[in-house]
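S1.2 Input.
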Amino acid sequence: MMQAQKEPLTLEAAEYLLSIEFPEGDRERMQRLAERSEAGTLTAEEQAEFDGFLHVGNLLAVMQSRARRALKGTQTGRPHA
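S1.3 Output.
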């Protein structure tokens, strides 16, 4: 998905990406899973859930970084891909 996008993000797409966040309940669940992971007490099911949260969070962070670069480019008059 990230590599397939060759065109710069539109202003609207960049703003939308920056508006995405995990709901409070998911953030609380991630915190509990992180604490259990550090303690070494996650079940296999919880580890898979935690891994999923981490994967989505990392992807979102990369996409939001790209969105910030795109918005910065609009301020300087040149788009960033």
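S1.4 Remarks. The longest helix spans residues 44-76.
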